[in-house]
Amino acid sequence: MSTQAKPSNPLKAVRGTRDLLPPETALWNRVESVARNVFSRYGFGEIRTPIFEDTQLFARGVGEETDIVSKEMYTWSDGERFDKEALLDWWVRNHPLKPIGYGREDAPFDLSLDPPDGPRQLVAFASHLTSQMMASYAAINAPTFPRREDLDEYLDKGDSTDLGEVLDRGRYVKAIKRLVIASPVPAKPEEWVDDGFVIEYVFGNFNKSSQSLTLRPENTAGVVRAYIEHKLDARGDLQKLFYIGPQFRRERPQRGRYRQFWQIGVEVLGPVSSGSESPLRDAEVLEMLATLLDELGVRGWRLELNSVGSSDDRKRYNVALCEALAPVKDRLCEDNQRRAETNPLRVLDSKEPNDQDIINALPKIADFLDADSTAHFQAVLAALDACGVPYTVNPRLVRGLDYYTRTTFEFTVPDGSGLGTQNALLGGGRYDGLSEMLGGPKAPGIGFAIGEDRLILTLQAQAEANKPGAPHLDSEMWVPKLDAYIAPMGVERNPAALALARELRRAGLSVEVGDGTFRLKKSFEAADKSARHIVILGEDELASNTATVKTFATGEQVRVERSELAKLLRSESTPD
Ligand code: HAM
Hints:
By secondary structure, this protein is of the alpha+beta class. It contains 23 helices and 16 strands.
């Protein structure tokens, strides 16, 4: 028997993440299937992009100064198992060395060693390396070693060219230069070779594979990256894409705000010739959202929209905003003071109550739009009017991501819809310059992302608040009852019960099997909870090739032939 003590604190899901369990997952699936249905009626196709991407994608796409990129991303350096810079620092601080001469023809470096099998070996190598260095450097009493600033200069001078020539196999050169600088005067030449070999080996691997990666905090940048990478512009038509998947932001968790959350989003983009710049696209996306929310049964949603203009409009507006903020900045809260410095547009969507008077008096972006942006916005509004989609223009709506141009929008739900202070159900807008920002062709686009967690919370809260009138949350609709629960009478009947379940399931019915040890009362209770019918399988039934079926809705109990069973269960299993 194991004597291991049971850990006193069982592991839990990480803060800001959560498990979604049945029956709630049925609601998630239902929401997703309604969304898929609506998207297909509007001609959208699904795109699935990786959950992590190169960090640069978000830095360039979403913007370095945004909250998301500056403080909320989960970023790591892939391939680096220990901190190379820290190690180098450690050398410099602890081992004042003098650079030695290189280019020794007699140093038989072997670069053909196979890379390590995996991280474990690499870590082992790294620690071996560290201890080797500590041992050998401790023996050296050289008076100086270049400090950090000297180091780069030294590298620039290319003093290690000779060695580079001897050792250059292309990809390792930079690592080798570093190695050489840090190499000790060998106590014995073999050691030098040995140390050098190991150092080169480890650094070579780092240099080769180290890349900064980030868990996607949103999906628009990834979709545009994929659009560019797969040359979707060459298809010539409008790309109408949707996605459903998890996103990651290191925000302070609270109701409706998680560190892993789900988005249901769409992006419409393409070359200008495909009509991607047309205000009709904006209005169509908004009208589709209104349809989707209505079909899901979300009540009281409110569409707020604004135009943030072209990037030139925004530049002019930013200047005006900075000027207006300068004399009042000191009276703003600390957060807004910082925003006023780094990203003044963000001050506009601050909810800080004490700052509202100042913010309301700031210049409005509408006054800085050029004629084209104004006409574009008016055309979006006209198309919404024509469809009868209600909206409110909110001149302060600027959104927190840098890629937006022209139309921006959010849908909110009334207080008391389960979201606490997070009342934005979804957000989106146009991003006409994003593709170019990521090195792609001109590809104006517009899209949105619904916070699926928030949508679910809203549906649950609204159903709760409004019980009988909430058919969309009726539990039978989200978690349909099984067609049958099979109750074997006695353990001897278990194999036959499983065989019957197999037969019925293969015939397309949903079936649960009890256990022969259950008393009849327990079987009935379990069946009543989960299924429309209970199928009793006792000795008599098996002997006569029949089954006893009770239909809970009517209370009727009948004995039927096995050959008629599936038909009976099915005929009453389709809800009207
Ligand atoms: P976003 O406003 O950052 O926009 O996020 C969209 C929605 O995701 C929010 O309205 C909210 O419902 C949900 N959301 C955001 N953060 C969290 C969180 N920590 N926990 C729960 N839900 C959250 C975007 O992400 C853009 N990519 C939308 C877009 C698509 N714009 C153009 N195309």
